[in-house]
TrEMBL record:
Keyword Lipoprotein: no
Underlying gene: Ppp4r1_3
Full protein name: PP4R1 phosphatase
Lineage: Eukaryota, Metazoa, Chordata, Craniata, Vertebrata
Organism, scientific name: Brachypodius melanocephalos (black-headed bulbul)
InterPro entries: ARM-like, ARM-type_fold, PP2A_Regulatory_Subunit_A
GO molecular function, one term: protein phosphatase regulator activity
Length: 282
């Protein structure tokens, strides 16, 4: 309470309220709020000024991006209009480190802003990050479930078509990217219907099960077993039957020993995690 009253006092201080360093045009454009001293916010917003970045600190935009969720939380969603332009400027910054910083925190910002502002202002930025460099995309991927669960069902379904794109990376040796995708898909099973899982997530899971890197394959076995469990509990039994038939056809009868080995490992995971009743498993 003392801090609030102090901030209120500072904000109403005549020295600050009559700050003449801004032209009338700039004053009209300045983002007005009453949570923190306006001069403090104006100072923060000026961090994205290119001339400041060149003369003060080349990393200043990155620091600004790192602090943005905290500033948004402090100001509250009712004052998001103060930060929106700055956020969009940072999201299109030439330095990938700045965009990466925002990509790692966009799910936190979505919680602060709520459904409507997220759909209107964050989803376009999120979509841009999906097409960015791998260093930026990984920030989105690591919190894919956290972000998508905040969206409405219809909006969430639109991303089913884009999940396949995560299998393609700038560097094919970047196996951790695919391992993270498998981890996120396990979480995403709770967000989608049985038909969506079968139609969109199943092909990705099967592709990951055949990955060249064993660490990716091991997570993918868990993904497939969880998929079997989810589809078995669904109201339509045909999905799990078709999935199991495809497992037999694709892996059990594979002409490569590695494919047949994959089938054994998937069966092991299904059995250990009690994903199916034993009679169904048999």
């Amino acid at each position: 309470q003392r801090m609030d009253s102090t901030l209120h006092y500072i904000h109403n201080d005549s020295d600050l309220s009559t700050n003449s360093s801004f032209s009338p045009e700039e004053e009209r454009k300045s983002k007005v709020q009453d949570v923190v001293p306006q001069a403090l916010l104006d100072q923060y917003l000026s961090m994205t000024d290119p001339s400041r970045a060149q003369t003060v600190d080349t990393e200043i935009a990155k620091h600004c991006a790192y602090s943005l969720p905290g500033v948004a939380l402090t100001l509250g969603r009712q004052n998001w209009h103060c930060l929106k332009d700055t956020y969009e400027t940072l999201a299109s910054d030439m330095q990938w480190k700045v965009r990466r910083t925002l990509a790692f925190s966009i799910h936190e910002l979505a919680v602060i802003l709520g459904d409507q502002l997220t759909a209107g202002d964050l989803v376009p930025v999120f979509n841009g990050f999906l097409k960015d460099l791998d260093e930026v995309r990984i920030g989105v991927l690591k919190h894919l479930h956290d972000f998508l669960k905040l969206l409405h069902v219809d909006k969430r379904r639109e991303y089913l078509y884009q999940l396949q794109e995560f299998l393609v990376t700038d560097n094919s040796r970047n196996w951790r990217f695919r391992a993270e995708l498998a981890e996120q898909l396990i979480l995403l099973l709770d967000l989608y219907s049985a038909r969506d899982i079968y139609d969109y997530l199943r092909p990705i899971a099967f592709s990951l099960c055949a990955d060249k890197v064993s660490s990716v394959r091991w997570i993918s076995y868990k993904l497939v077993s969880e998929m079997v469990k989810k589809l078995y509990m669904a109201s339509t039994p045909t999905f799990v039957v078709d999935l199991m038939n495809e497992l037999v056809e694709k892996f059990c009868r594979c002409h490569k020993w590695s494919g047949r080995q994959t089938f054994v490992f998937i069966c092991q995971t299904i059995s250990e995690d009690d994903c199916l009743p034993m009679d169904q498993f048999a």
